[in-house]
Write a structure and sequence with these properties.
262 residues; alpha+beta; Fructose-1,6-Bisphosphatase, Chain A, domain 1; D-Maltodextrin-Binding Protein, domain 2; 2 domains; 28% strand; globular
């Protein structure tokens, strides 16, 4: 399979989607917003950006399957699946906070092969291919090196699918380890920042595949560690996400195991 061609085409699709999303972002006063659940929003921008991405993927790779956050899965025959989050960080998006991104991951044989997170507001394209490393706007990037958990920032996520006590225990555990935490309401962007060494790592007790598969590959290919999962199972069920530099990963894993009860 021509991974380079797929990656380059997917990056073009993500950038075009980002341009459309930015256009909506500049016209927030006209945007229709619906609430799916507690602190869980969807806009016409989410839906239309995903439709645009689906159409472009169908044109470029007609035999590939597509799974997205806002629309029904499209089956394929190639064994390759594209996983879309058209706007990760919708709560930020609708409140004019410029911390959101477009996510596109490519999965084959139970593993994420391509991961793209594009921040169109700041024109930052985080791209990884399995075995090919991670780049930021074409320049190789790496996770933070040589810093313990108390020497940088840990990003943490929260959602309505798990008990709030899990999040509070994780905050307490990280604090006791000497960590400093941030929650920026975009798990995808937080994972990208960890891959770039801006954050030391990231933990969340449950993420959907469209939120995390691309970011996990970014971190892994940038020299970090992730809690391994089968990508196909993540598409079906979601799961816990623990990722970071080698210096902090075991600390994050210990905190998560203690905090994230079933």
């Amino acid at each position: 399979m021509d991974w380079q061609h797929k990656t380059e085409t997917a990056l073009e699709i993500a950038k075009d989607a980002g341009a459309l999303a930015v256009d909506y972002f500049r016209k927030l006063d006209t945007l229709r917003i619906d609430q799916k659940g507690h602190q869980d929003f969807v806009t016409e921008a989410d839906r239309n950006v995903e439709l645009t991405m689906r159409a472009a993927l169908a044109d470029a790779f007609p035999d590939d399957a597509v799974v997205g956050e806002e629309h029904a899965p499209k089956p394929g025959t190639s064994g390759f699946t594209w996983v879309i989050d058209p706007i990760d960080g919708t709560a930020n998006f609708i409140n004019a906070i410029p911390l959101w991104c477009v996510i596109l991951a490519g999965v084959c044989n139970g593993k994420t092969q391509i991961g793209i997170i594009y921040d169109p507001v700041h024109d930052e394209a985080f791209v990884a291919t399995r075995g090919g490393g991670t780049t930021l706007n074409g320049v190789p990037m790496h996770v933070s090196a040589g810093k313990g958990i108390g020497e940088g920032t840990i990003a943490i996520g929260s959602n309505g699918r798990k008990r709030p006590e899990n999040f509070m225990r994780a905050v307490q555990g990280l604090t006791e380890e000497g960590g400093v935490m941030v929650r920026n309401a975009s798990g995808g962007l937080s994972l990208a920042y960890a891959a770039a060494g801006r954050f030391l790592g990231y933990i969340e007790d449950h993420m959907n595949a469209w939120d995390c598969l691309a970011g996990q590959l970014l971190i892994q290919e940038a020299g970090g560690l992730i809690e391994e999962q089968d990508a196909d199972d993540m598409i079906a069920n979601g799961g816990r996400v623990i990722a970071g530099s080698s210096e902090v990963f075991e600390d994050l894993l210990r905190v998560a195991k203690a905090a994230f009860t079933p």
